[in-house]
Amino acid sequence: MTQDTPPEVSTRDALIEAGMALLAEGGPEALTLRRAAARAGVSHAAPAHHFKGLRGLQTAIAIRAFADFNRAMITHRDAAADTPFERLAGICDGYLAFVEGQEGLFHLMFTAAEVDRDDPDFRAGATRAYGLLRAGCAPFTGGADLVFEGAVWSAVHGYATLGFTRKRGQAGGENPPPFRALLRLIVPDRPDHLGPVSAK
Amino acid sequence: MTQDTPPEVSTRDALIEAGMALLAEGGPEALTLRRAAARAGVSHAAPAHHFKGLRGLQTAIAIRAFADFNRAMITHRDAAADTPFERLAGICDGYLAFVEGQEGLFHLMFTAAEVDRDDPDFRAGATRAYGLLRAGCAPFTGGADLVFEGAVWSAVHGYATLGFTRKRGQAGGENPPPFRALLRLIVPDRPDHLGPVSAK
DNA sequence: ATTCAAGCTTGACAGTGTAAAGCTTCGCCG
DNA sequence: CGGCGAAGCTTTACACTGTCAAGCTTGAAT
């Protein structure tokens, strides 16, 4: 088409976006190097020039997903009432909202085998996500408290992966409890100025 | 219920065990219908007579894994000191010990895409696991309390899937906190006879 | 003008899941 | 006793996957 400044996205970006679309439409099994290439309008071997195999494409997708993921947490946090609990709950809401809409991406981000977790960009995205959560926890702990952070992080992640975001959890058959109730259990309803919630 | 005197294991069992070995040795990617068949000493098409495709084999493996998983929780629980907290912590210890030793199986049991979660035997195993946890929670809640159970379940599951059982968590770079510390945060250190820990 | 590397294509290969067809073998019923 | 029918298994075949090797084009740098 036009040929002034590159108006068409780079092949690399086109492949990433095609892969994300495949993931959203057909789940992890539908994400295929050849299909992504076809959808991006290039030959089946083109991806090899941009990624280190399928693993590389999946890693690139996961990196982009972390950007969206972090944005979702920030958006929900900033839309919440300006209290420590509501801001932390907002972060978790963003976390869970992302999972609900993008299970394929979530699977790529947190389920180990198919992604290169040593990729520096991937680590940066994951570290940034943890930093957001940590910042949300800080008002309750007066700094970094691995126990408290670990409890909140585990709770929201477990809640998501156990399928509580869907109508019925995968283990029990009953309706799942709302996440805020779980969070209340970890975050004591008390003034914020009392210092760390878990001793040492 | 099964036939009494087949001295050599059935092909079906041989396939399941071959698959579990592959999973343990090479991770989820190494579990292949053809490889399992070869290791079991049958042709590559034999599995089709016992399972509904690869999905069926993976489901059968997950079902067997749940039996081991539940046994691990029971063993650790029964070896613990006879207090409500120690028994619940023991269940969680069993949970985490299983994950540490059998990440491939754990992945199959709890990561959705590759298994038929509607299989009745699979559901039975998962429900039994949840029942064990629920029983461990009961002394603190005076019965079934979805919020408390969900918090403990999410915490231990999140702790496991986030890689806290390894030296360093995948998100933060620091040493992970011990799980018991997280559990202490959810299970208040208080007499057991005060009734449910979460109101309503 | 030449070179050279990046980007892309075509072609090939081993490995995968799965379906179809044929072969054994054993239990059961006539 | 005879046959027969289904279960279990093998062989064959096919479409699809990831990956590699070789060639083609193109554009910028030397």
From TrEMBL, chains A, B:
One Gene Ontology term of the molecular function aspect: transcription cis-regulatory region binding
Superkingdom of the source species: Bacteria
Pfam families linked to this entry: TetR_C_33, TetR_N
Regions crossing the membrane: none
InterPro entries reported for this sequence: Homeodomain-like_sf, HTH-type_TetR-like_transc_reg, HTH_TetR, MT1864/Rv1816-like_C, Tet_transcr_reg_TetR-rel_C_sf
Segments of the chain annotated as binding DNA: 32-51
Domain HTH tetR-type: 9-69
Coiled coil: none
Keywords associated with the record: DNA-binding, Transcription, Transcription regulation
PANTHER family: HTH-TYPE TRANSCRIPTIONAL REGULATOR RUTR, POSSIBLE TRANSCRIPTIONAL REGULATORY PROTEIN (PROBABLY TETR-FAMILY)
Identification of the protein by name: TetR/AcrR family transcriptional regulator
